[in-house]
Specification:
Number of helices: 7
Strand order of the largest sheet: 2-4-5-7-6
Number of strands: 7
Radius of gyration: 21 Å
Order of helices and strands: HHHEHEEHEEHEEH
Bound molecules: adenosine-5'-diphosphate
Largest sheet: 5 strands, mixed
Oligomer: single chain
């Protein structure tokens, strides 16, 4: 489709298009360098402090904690960049099995509980009792999607706010939702939110990040045959939803094949 479009362009339009793409790449490299530089300089600063003699034991612990947290940030960013390259080139390969969507939800919420407490945000989860929430999915990748959506909700929801996470059966799918009481997203930003490297323009608190998390979530959900969307009103928080195929939508023989 892209080739078809460029064939219809005049030489002048092609040149302008190439210039735009080059500028976007340069901006991207600047952003990546900037985002990596911050945690790396913290690591460098604390490591050189630790290399001095007679550092008090309490300070050693503090420095090591900062080094660890910032090394984790760098590792997460490099992982996101690798996923973005995968998304662009081959797409995601998911290894699906029949898994319990409710258990995945619970595990994702439990992993975020400490951070929610630290931020003074209420984090609650619920899955419809009695409904079959078995999904055909790659559990590692579903955890990655949930961690990303819950992580964003935590990043934007102020102290005293609430995040509700739930899963329920919806026809042939199971629908997962992460709903927060943060600042929400403007109507102008909504259509672009799942684009690669997009960050909302009117963030009151500018977030650290590469604008890749939601694009990766979309790629992962679609690799499962699901759908992801967001609804939000500025000032009223937002609701991120995604679907995964329900296992009971498969024939018993197909379910046996996935186990
Ligand atoms: P990043 O890692 O930079 O946050 P994402 O792709 O995860 O990138 O998110 C893209 C943008 O979407 C964010 O920069 C933020 O502006 C907006 N966003 C995502 N989740 C939320 C949320 N729960 N509340 C408000 N804005 C959000």
């Amino acid at each position: 489709c892209y080739n078809l479009l460029t064939n219809l362009m005049s030489p002048h339009e092609k040149l302008a298009e190439l210039k735009d793409r080059l500028e976007a790449k340069i901006r991207l490299m600047q952003d990546v360098a900037h985002e990596l530089k911050n945690p790396l300089s913290v690591i460098h600063g604390y490591a050189s402090y630790l290399s001095k003699e007679n550092v008090p034991p309490a300070e050693i612990k503090k420095a090591l904690r900062a080094i660890l947290a910032n090394a984790e940030r760098v590792t997460a960013m490099v992982g996101q960049l690798q996923d973005a390259v995968r998304l662009e080139s081959t797409g995601f390969a998911v290894e699906t099995r029949v898994v319990d969507g409710s258990a995945l939800l619970q595990e994702a919420v439990e992993s975020a509980e400490l951070e929610a407490r630290r931020r003074g945000v209420g984090l609650h989860w619920r899955s419809t009792v009695g409904d079959s929430l078995l999904v055909v999915a790659d559990s590692k990748r579903v955890m990655q999607i949930l961690a990303n959506l819950i992580g964003n909700a935590l990043k934007f929801t102020p102290n005293g706010g609430t995040i509700n996470v739930d899963a329920q059966r919806d026809g042939d799918s199971v629908r997962f939702a992460v709903i927060d009481t943060g600042p929400g997203i403007s109507a102008a930003d909504l259509p672009h939110l799942f684009d690669r490297f997009y960050q909302a323009q009117d963030n009151t608190q500018k977030s650290a990040g590469l604008g890749l998390g939601l694009a990766i979530c979309k790629g992962l959900v679609e690799a499962h045959g699901g759908r992801i969307w967001v609804s939000s009103l500025p000032g009223m928080g937002c609701a991120f939803n995604f679907t995964l195929p329900a296992a009971s939508a498969l024939t018993p023989a197909a379910v046996r094949d996935t186990i």
